[in-house]
Every structure is written in C-alpha cells, then in structure tokens.
Write a structure and sequence with these properties.
Blueprint (H helix, E strand, L loop, with lengths): L5 H16 L2 H14 L2 H8 L7 H14 L5 H10 L3 H12 L4 H11 L14 H11 L3 H17 L6 H9 L6 H8 L4 H10 L8 H8 L5 H13 L6 H6 L6 H18 L1 H4 L3 H9 L4 H12 L7 H11 L7 H7 L7 H14 L5 H8 L12 H8 L4 H14 L5 H12 L11 H8 L17 H10 L23 H8 L1 H6 L1 H17 L5 H26 L5 H9 L5 H9 L6 H17 L10 H10 L2 H14 L5 H7 L5 H12 L3 H11 L8 H11 L5 H15 L4 H10 L4 H8 L4 H12 L4 H19 L5
C-alpha cells in the first residue's frame, strides 16, 4: 500500500484523534485503517489500545498490530492472548502473532499451542484457553509447521487431546516431509477414530509417502478407515492405485463399496481413457454381473467414458446383457448407451429391444427413453413412440421427447422432425405422420412455420411500429389480473414441499458442497460414543428422507405441469436455427400468456447464445408490443430479450420502460439500455452489416442518472452499477455522494469505488472524515476501509 501518499499522510492525525476521542464504532474503524496503512506514527499509539475497555477496539488494535509484523510487540500480544478477559480479543491476539514471521513469534505460537491453562477442566464453565489453543494450532503453517511437529505429536499422543485431533492432524499435513515419521506412527495407532482422521488429513499432505500410507489404510480392519482412505485417494487422483481401488468393490462392507464406486468415478472423470486402460473387458464384464446394482451401474459409467470404439466381442456381449438388465440399472444403461462408441444400427437394435421390454410408467425411465433420439437417427416409425411419450402425465417426460425432436432438426430427418414439432405446436399430436411434399420442400428450405390465427408482425417497418407504440397511451396494469405461473407447478402440498421448491437453484449450484457436508456429518456421527448409536441412526434416516424430499421437489420445480405447445416453445430456445426464431416470433403475440412468456424467454436464450442470427431482428416489433402491454413478468422478460438482441432502435421503448409501474421491469430495462450504448451499437452494425443512426450516449447516461432517484433500491443499484461500468473514473464523485446520502446503496457504491484508483478517492474522502457530522464521517471511514480491503485482496473486487 502507498503509505507515503500525501492524502493518507494528511489523514493520520485526524484518525489518531478519532481513535482517542471518537465513538466506539469510529475508533474500531480507525484502528483497522491505521493497521492497514501501516503508518509508523500509528504503531505506538495502537499499542496503548490493546487493553482498551471497549472489547471491539481491543480486537481492532490487535489486528492492526499484526499488520505491522513488528517483533517488539510479540510479548505484549502473547500476554493478551493468555490473559485478556474477552475471548474475541484473545483470538485476535493469536492471529496477530501468527502474522509475524520471526523466530520470537514462532516460539510464542508454540507456547500457545501447548497452553497450560487449556488442561483445566470445566468445573468453572467454558475455558477461553481452549479457543486460544485451537486457533493457534489452526494457524500453524510454513516453516513453523515443521518446527511444531514434536509439540503437536505430544499433544496428540501423550496428552490425548481428542477434541483437537482434526486441527492437529491438518497442521501436521501442512508441515510437509517433516511429518512423515508422525504419519507412519499414526498408521499403527490402536484407535480407529484416529486412523480414520489421519486418512482424512493425508488428503492434502504434500509428500511422496502420502499415497503409500493411504494404500496401507485400505487394508485397515475398520471399514470407516477404509472409506476415508478411498476418499483421500480419489481426491488426490492416485491412478497408480486404481487396481487396488477396484478390489475394494468386493469389500464385505457396503459403505466401503460405495466409497470405492465414488472414488472410481472421480478418477475416471478426471483422466478418462487413461484410467480405463487399467480395467480390461474381463473386469468390466465382472462389474456388469455383480450382485450390487450400484456396481453394475458403475460398469455403464466406465463404459460411457471410453473414447475409442468398443471391441466387437464386447459389443456382442453387451447386446446379450441388455436383454437381462435389472430394474436398478436400466436408467443408467439408457443414459450411457448414447455415449458408447458403437454403430447407430446397434444403438437402434438395443433401443427397440428396451422399448418393447420396459414400460414407461416411471417418469425417470420414460425420460431416459425419450433422450435416446438426441443421438439416434429419427425414423418415420417412431411416430407411435412419440405419441405415447407426449401423452405422459409428467411434463418432464414430454419435454425430454420434444427436446429430442428439436435436436433432430439438425439431422438427416430434419423435415420429419420439423413437421412433427409443428403438429405438436398446433395441439395436433395425433397426426404425427410424414410431411406432405410441399411441407417437406418448405422444411428443406428452412421455411416451415406453423400458421396461426394471430396477425404476424411485419419485420420491414420496425421504426414506424416503434413510433406508433410510443404515441399510444401507456396501459395501466390491473393488479387483480392473474399472471401465469411460468415456473411453478400446483400449490405446495406441505411446508416441506414449499421449502424444497424454494431452494432448488441453490441446491443445484451447491451439489458438491452438499456432498462435503454429508461426509462431515457422517464423520461426526461415526465419532459419537457407542451408546449413542440409536441417535446416529435416527439422524441418518432423517437426512436420507430429506434428500429424497428435496429431489422430488427439485423435479417438480424444474418440470412444472405444462401443455405440449408450451414445452415446444421452451425447447426451441435450445435451437440455433432461423426456423426456431421464426416459430417463436409467431407465438409472441398469441392469446395464451403461458406460451407468450415462454416464447420471450426462449428468444432471449437464443439471442444471448447466437446474436448473429439475422432472423432475430424480425422479433423487435412483437417484443416492443409486449414491453408496453403484457403482464409485468412478460414485460421484464421482453426487456431482457431486447437487451440481448442489442438493437439500438429499441432504445425509445426501453426509456419508456424505465417509468414502468413495476420495479423488476425497470431493472430489466436498465440492463437492456446498457446494451444499446455505443460499443454495442458498433458490434451490432458489424454483425448485421447495417449502418444505424448515431446513438447519443449522453442521452442514455442522463436517463440512468434519473433512475438514481427511483423509489426502489434495486432500481437505483442497477443504474449505479451500469453508470460505474460505462463511465469509470468520471463517476467517482457520484459514487461518493450516493454512499453518503443513500443508505440503501452505501455498500454497492463502496464496492464500485474500490475498483477505482484509490488515492484520488482518499483525497476526496479526507475532508468528510474531518466533518462534525458523525453519520457522514462514519460512512467515509467505512469507504476508506473498503478501499484498503480491496487493495489487500484485489481478487474480491
């Protein structure tokens, strides 16, 4: 950090004065700011506040002293860590000591690791020394970790600090080769719990001996130790032990077999064909005939990862095996078969065999069947199969079939797929048949469009259409109007069902984190005493039931009940063809609000993925109509889609949408307006080989400035973000004023300010820090802290 800059130097006296005389929260901010700036005049002053009556000031002062990394304060910080009455202050002192890279600091931290006070019992309640000791162990790293190995082993073996075992073992793993003897010793420890935790810690141990010790732990008599060793080997992608992991599939314990399956999938997902060479066809056939259905499914998983063509004898064997598939593996097999390097004729034979053999009562099985056409050539005789799938009660099955048809529009039977999609879109799936010669000719020319009763909007007169809409009176929205439920099914059957649906997106985005949490929970349950085994089992059953409920809710939220026409419109959003754009355009002004909303959404998906499609420009007129006259949810979606189109001539309509009665529409309009600025206009002209009337950027900025007065914080925040991205340094004063005067946007403005050159911001904030107005002064200090935080951690910007 530029400590010697004039703006910062000029602020030091004022910060020292506030540290002494200011309000408690101001004193805390000043202490942290002085520590981050590391100004020498502040070091002695901060030492005086390590014993301040205000606990938060003590914590901030200790953090600041750690920033100076001065060995002269180590003794004072060590005393604070051992004796301060507040637990948070003691922890802050430990962290400050750990930040000082000096022999004296290392010695002090080793003393805190083996803190004598931590051996006292709970007769007088919680002992803060336990937290100090745990924190000191967790901060051991680098060269100190190597020195700390004897102390850590004494604490682990001699003092039997059971509750500190995970932290001690993780510290040993950070010490590198210095911990080798320690881990070999722990390999033979009599307690299964400690061996299991050792296997977990070795996961991140940087040593050549790590996989060797894990291999030895694979042979441990306790199943939980073997499970943890498998997890660590998978994490490290130790392919040299792949055969040994395969042998664990024959383990007598079901939990070990599950861990082996997960480990094999992890390794093969990372290495692909290289790992599969270790298996061989004989071993693969053995997997397919195992009594455990999970292992049979693993066989399909491994086979699907194979890049090269499957040997002929294996192909023949698989075709025979498919005749006797177990119900537990049929879905996995169907998911794997399209990925196999086999002929389309073999795929068709197997598919026809499975279609005749298996019913489609299960939604999961029917969906897997429907997905086969994404890799299978479409045939005229498939019409009956599609009819059956399209009459399924579950929308997920029907959507899978329709998605497959959309995929087929790029294949050899394009005309047939387009014709069938048109029948479904018209609500006439009973007439799935060969297209007539005239329709086939149209499809071959990529011009087949379903006819509708609504008048199609002419794409040749966009400017006059926009002006006509602008001249109309803006329609008032009826709050009593019932909007379509675009992404929801029927009302939740229970509170748990509602919770499961509400968390769908978060659950999908954090699947890996959930797996880690499940593993940690299982480890905690395993560590419980034997007399609590009944309680552990109840917890496991509740977790399993919750997972099933979440999965059910996830499927309902992802695939709400919808008509086939709506599903076709939704599926067309995954196509990159001009015919899909034309079909969607024809459905923008339909009387069915659900179809209309899906059409807008699908067009937006195509525009974001393929903005170069010339046919997209023809959708401007209908989208403009929807932006002014549709229900709020459709108006917001229309604004987003117009932004994705990037058509500058839509700007007047988007300006009008900035005055919409509903905040989400205004937010969407702001985002779309930003897409029409001059850089986007240049890209649009180049992409479509047209020349448009020059766009005055100042007009856009003026509208965005007006949006900063919007009554809704989310609208003001969106406008502020766009202004900061497009105008850069010139908007610094506006960001400062917004942070000072708009409490709802203070945090957003501070984050945007932190992206700018810091010294000018410090110079502008300095007078405010000296103001008598405490509110403005407090905000200015927080802004200065945010700037220094981003200087230390630029990746957080």
């Amino acid at each position: 950090m530029n400590v010697s800059s004039l703006p910062r130097k000029a602020l030091i006296p004022e910060l020292l004065n506030l540290l002494k005389e200011g309000l408690p929260e101001e004193r805390v901010d000043c202490a942290r700011l002085l520590g981050r700036w590391k100004h020498h005049d502040a070091k002695e002053a901060l030492q005086e506040y390590l014993g301040d009556p205000e606990e938060e000031v003590c914590v901030a002062a200790a953090e600041a002293m750690g920033s100076f990394a001065d060995p002269s304060v180590i003794e004072l910080l060590g005393q604070m860590a051992r004796e301060h009455p507040d637990g948070e202050a003691r922890i802050a002192a430990v962290r400050a000591v750990a930040r000082i890279d000096a022999p004296e600091a290392h010695a002090e931290l080793l003393t805190l690791i083996n803190l004598a006070e931590a051996n006292e019992g709970m007769e007088e309640g919680w002992n803060d020394a336990w937290d100090v000791q745990r924190e000191a162990i967790s901060l051991v790293d680098g060269s100190l970790a190597q020195k700390a190995v004897p102390t850590l082993m004494d604490l682990l073996i001699e003092q039997e600090a059971d509750d500190l075992e995970p932290e001690i073992l993780e510290a040993l793993a950070r010490s590198g080769s210095a911990a080798e003897n320690a881990f070999w010793q722990l390999l033979l420890h009599p307690l299964p719990r400690l061996r299991r935790r050792t296997a977990r810690a070795i996961k991140k141990w940087q040593s050549k001996s790590a996989p060797v010790i894990l291999f030895r732990l694979l042979q441990d008599q306790h199943p939980q130790v073997r499970i943890e060793a498998l997890s660590s080997l998978a994490f490290r992608t130790e392919t040299a032990y792949f055969r040994d992991i395969l042998l664990c599939l024959e383990d007598r314990d079901t939990g070990v077999r599950s861990a082996a399956i997960s480990a094999i999938q992890t390794i093969t997902d990372k290495l692909g064909k290289h790992a599969l060479d270790e298996i061989g066809s004989d071993r693969l056939k053995k997997l397919f005939t195992d009594d455990d259905p999970r292992i049979r499914c693993l066989g399909w998983h491994l086979l699907a990862r194979q890049d090269e063509a499957i040997e002929e004898d294996m192909v023949l064997w698989l075709e025979q095996h498919v005749e006797d598939l177990h119900s537990d593996e049929i879905v996995t097999a169907l998911d794997a078969i399209p990925q196999l390097a086999v002929s389309s004729q073999w795929h068709r034979r197997v598919f026809e065999m499975l279609w005749l053999r298996w019913g489609r009562e299960s939604a999961e099985l029917a969906t897997a069947m429907a997905r086969q056409w994404q890799c299978l050539p479409l045939e005229e005789t498939d019409g009956d199969k599609f009819l059956e799938l399209l009459t399924a009660e579950q929308a997920c099955v029907r959507l899978a079939a329709i998605n497959s048809l959309v995929q087929c529009t790029t294949g050899q039977q394009k005309a047939l797929a387009v014709h069938w999609l048109g029948d479904i879109l018209h609500g006439e799936p009973d007439f799935l048949s060969q297209p007539s010669n005239s329709k086939t000719e149209q499809a071959d020319n990529d011009r087949l469009i379903p006819l509708r009763d609504e008048d199609a909007t002419s794409a040749d007169d966009e400017s006059s259409l926009i002006q006509h809409i602008m001249d109309r009176e803006y329609p008032e929205h009826d709050d009593g109007y019932s909007e379509p439920l675009m992404h929801a099914s029927e009302a939740p059957r229970s509170t748990l069902d509602a919770v499961a649906r509400a968390n769908i997106d978060e659950n999908l985005a954090t699947a890996i984190q959930e797996n880690d949490q499940d593993r940690e929970l299982e480890n905690m349950l395993t560590d419980l005493p034997g007399e609590m085994s009944a309680f552990s089992q109840v917890v496991r059953e509740h977790v399993e039931a919750g997972d099933r409920l979440c999965l059910t809710g996830r499927k309902k939220a992802d695939f709400p009940d919808a008509s086939n026409a709506v599903l076709v419109v939704r599926a067309l959003g995954g196509s990159d063809s001009d015919f899909a754009v034309r079909w969607l355009r024809e459905h923008l002004l339909t009387s069915d609000i659900g179809v209309q909303a899906e059409a807008v959404s699908s067009l937006g998906r195509i525009a974001r993925r393929r903005p170069d499609l010339g046919e997209l420009s023809s959708c401007l007129g209908p989208l403009a109509t929807l932006l002014t006259a549709a229900p709020p949810a459709v108006r917001a979606a229309s604004a987003h889609t117009l932004g994705a189109l990037g058509h500058p001539t839509a700007l007047p309509l988007l300006f009008a949408a900035l005055e919409d009665a509903h905040a989400p529409v205004r937010v969407a309009a702001i985002s779309a307006v930003a897409s029409s600025l001059f850089t986007q206009q240049a890209e649009f002209e180049q992409r479509h080989d047209v020349v448009l009337e020059s766009l005055e950027s100042q007009q856009v900025f003026d509208r965005l400035h007006q949006a900063l007065k919007d009554p809704e914080p989310e609208v003001r925040a969106a406008a502020l973000r766009i202004l900061a991205e497009k105008r850069g340094e010139s908007i610094r004063q506006l960001l400062i004023d917004t942070a000072l005067n708009d409490p709802d946007l203070t945090e957003s403005a501070s984050r945007l300010l932190a992206r700018m050159e810091p010294e000018t911001t410090v110079e502008k904030l300095a007078p405010i820090v000296k103001e008598p107005n405490r509110v403005r002064r407090s905000v200015a200090l927080r802004l200065l802290l945010e700037i220094t935080q981003r200087e230390s951690h630029p990746e957080a910007i």
